[in-house]
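Re: the request from the purification team.
They wanted to know what the chain is likely to look like in 3D before they choose a buffer screen. I agreed to run a prediction and write the result into the notebook, where they can find it.
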Amino acid sequence: MDIEVNNMILSALERQSEPIDRRDLQIESDVLETEEFNNALSYLERKGRIIINRKKVGLPSVMGCTAAKILRVSRGFAFAQPLESELPDIFITASSLKGALPGDLVMLKNITVGGKGFSGEVAKILEPGSRVISGTIEKPKSKFGRSYIIPDADFNYHLRIVQGGELKSKIGDKVKAAVYYEPKEKRFYARVIKVYGKGNSAKICADAIIDSYGIPVKFPVPVKHEAAIAAGQPITEVEMSKRLDLTAEPIFTIDGADAKDLDDAISVKKLDDGGWELGVHIADVSHYVTKGSKLDEEARQRGTSVYFADRVIPMLPVELSNGCCSLNEGTKKLTFSAIMKLDRKADLVDYRFEKSFIISKVRGVYSEVNRIFDGSADEVIMNKYAPVMECLESARELADILKEKAKKRGGLDIESSELRFVLDENGVCVDVSERERGEAEELIEQFMITANSAAALYAKSAGIPFVYRVHESPDPEKLSSLAELAAACGFQTRRIKEGVHQTDLAALIEKAKDTKYSALISTQVLRSMAKARYDPRPLGHFGLSLADYCHFTSPIRRYPDTSIHRILTDLVRGESLDIIKRRYHEFAAESSKLSSDCEIRAVKAERDAEKCYAAEYMTAHIGEVYEGVVSGVTVKGIFVMLQNGIEGFIDLLCIDGTEFAFDGKTSTIDLRSGKSYSIGDAVRIEVAQAVVSTGTIDFIFAKTDL
């Protein structure tokens, strides 16, 4: 695949208002090599970027078509997401699917818009998806019937298992199944190809989730071999002579108590002029993971470490992630240091990036540092941090100013309910709580943001290819919906409608903070914004209100960080700009795309697994009554969040003698009794059901709340 040739062809087609003859297109695009031209056409057609109709070629929009991905299939219809156009999801009847399955890349035709939105038909399947799903075996509906699979996603109905396709599975088992379409019957069938185990185990469900998302678990032998060799390399005198010696500095790490991959350390000095010198020292992963190595290719395909309640699937083998790259206390380590000077207002006035080596003086723990800050630390903790106490005090002072600066520039402090799961010795979830974020966590966050911003500024100023972390401005339509919702909650929305700035959204979040709408407004602000991603262009970060931003500080667990360490290493060591551009132009674009895709995959898998663990916990509490808060309202019912952060659903349509009407925003009312439920209302619920295999939790009202 030659990206430049593809772009030349696409650019030529963009200049055409109607399909063009194949031969004329070759001349117009100036791709003189016929084989190269034909290969590019074939690739672009497979990816849905162009349509070839006999000897004519055109963009899908010119041909009245659009490429799309099938999202989900229900009985009688499906939805597809256009790849390149601004169209919303497109409705497709079952008879117009042509056997397309979720995940398939298709070309849609006859796209029309009606009262219920856009609809279309599948012209052809361009590229089949995996056609493999995970689900749970359900017993036959009749004595002599076949078993069914309840899919975990993509299909909104049960799939019949083909005759002989059970593969020794039992009722209630979590399985992997291949799905295929029978044209004569116009029906989808499934065949079990793997049995994970009982579907009422969150651990088993996590296994299935990992598998279904294609997240690699085991490292290939050649990769493990390379890791062992890299980890066994001593830090030589020659290597140290090329680096800045920071071993005498009061450098230390702060992480969670159970963290093993310590990839960032800090140092802070108060300067005579009232400013600070902030050092952020990052594990030099790119020294061990070299371009083109098997380790590098494996890390590139994984993209990120993935975190579950009972395990971590690391991007790098443990010999690196927990070994030679981890900045363990009292051990000499190779680092890449961002050394920044900030004035008394914490404005960045100077910075430099240095290849270095350090010895961490203390293995800090968030909970311990928080106890120092709140004055509850005992003598043992105080003695532990004595070697870096002066540094820690300066760090706290600087972090407070940085937090205030972030607030003034409009950095969005969005609430999130991240859950913490406690498992017993058998891996069963026995406790759930919302993860706390204390002053120490915020301190490290501010320092990492400062280093990430400096790295992005350094790269942009030098004009080199790079992998930026970007977050674009919110979609105007989503902002309009946010404004309507905020107005319904009683908040002023004029500035949001007129053209939003970060400070406007930050002000809205602040106004809602001490009200019952706090979580709702934070969630809706988050949903109104574009998804953060990686990009070779410096497009800025809206959420942080920063013009320059990247991910520099976590190369053990994120490939984009490793990528930019590699690029910055060449810059720091004096490589010419021309060589850096030639070496990394394509690499930066590919790393951005792959890293974004891998991040999305990891986030979805982590969320799906969390739902299963939450449901597993609630299975031990069926029939119990809890206090909760209405967290969401829909046509069908209400979502209720408990004090531990777990959310469940109450189906209002199943309550006899009621007729609920949803206002479309925040409330629903029973037209018969006048009883209403709004977001933020306190309610008492009883746990009715929890299904681990699907991660769903159902509540009913406690008798006193009926």
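For the purification team: DSSP finds 19 helices and 34 strands in the chain.
Please add any questions underneath this entry.
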